[in-house]
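pipeline stage [seq->struct] | target=ADP-heptose:LPS heptosyltransferase | organism=Nonomuraea dietziae | residues=285
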Amino acid sequence: MALEVLALRGLGLGDLLTAVPALRALRRAYPRHRLVLAGPSALAPLLPVDEVIEVRGPGPVPRTRPQVAVNLHGRGPQSTEALLATEPGTLLTHGIGGPPWRDDVHEVRRWCDLLEWHGLPADPDDLYLGEGDRGGPVVVHPGAAYPSRRWPPERYAMVVAYLRGRGHEVVVTGSAAEWELAVRVAGLSGARVLAGRTDLKALAALVRDARLVICGDTGLAHLASAYRTPSVLLFGPVSPALWGPPKQGPHTVIWKGATGDPHGQSPDPGLLSINVDEVIEAISL
């Protein structure tokens, strides 16, 4: 049996960053073990682990007989079954020999609570990756994984125009697939479009050094939290009590209190109720 801790979280950037405190707790609890994450290998540079094996979703996990396996992916059953199939010496998960799953707890706290239940101290505030010089541009990120979490591009464009009109340097980020969206948001303001032009390392450095980040409930919001970068975050349809930034950080959250389907195919009504003036009033530069 390998002297290894295997943690499963086959999810995207924001999801993985919420698990950083738990991963650090595992490192402290098992200092002589190799800490292996089953997740997207592209995110390895940001994570406090020894190795990342490529896994998307709840499995399967191409590993055998770790001494400890930890389900940081979800409530199961697929993720739990995938880890059981590796034949671990010990499995830490919700349900089977672990705590019941709760829907009313913040995502960072959820995984720390799982480890605490198994006797491993974990600090939800231990999520920071460092801090930049704040000498960079304002970063505006209009995209999101699902339409329900995308504030309208024409409203982002008005915010960008406001910032440019006051002399602030602005960049608009996104994936290669979001190039047209980013161009639409930049408009004729003179903001630079970086959608599809930054790898993870460059994007992380951009957020780390940014003067301000403006975006919705996306991975970039969690990156701003990890670097303590000031941010204005537009939430909906998921409550910031479940996925929002640390309360003690330099972050302003705008949320109208309405919940809905985070995987919906149209903008959430609560998110649409946030107007441009509210976002501009939240900007402090």
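stage status: PASS
auto-comment: Residues 138-282 form a domain with the Rossmann fold fold (CATH 3.40.50.2000). The mean pLDDT is 96.
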